[in-house]
Please model this.
Amino acid sequence: MINTLLLAAMLGGLGGATRGLVGLLKALSLRRRILWFYWTVTVAIAIIIGIFTGIIFNFDPRLSLLAGYAGTDILEGIYKSFKAQKVFIATARAK
Model:
């Protein structure tokens, strides 16, 4: 059981690290500052997602890897959707 969870964690982490590497390459190409703490947290969350995916879906290695990659992307999208953003409200002109 421990070996299965450890493998799920490693595969989830590998998926998250792969996604993080793509993000790092994108940041380098756009000459943006790299936030190493953010990258580390993202990979740690991918490990947790991989473990839970392994537990819930009776451990399919491909699913843990995919969940690590896509799961952090989904969480990041949710986080960004709740951030305060400026909203432009158009007013109707009187004729």
The radius of gyration is 18 Å.
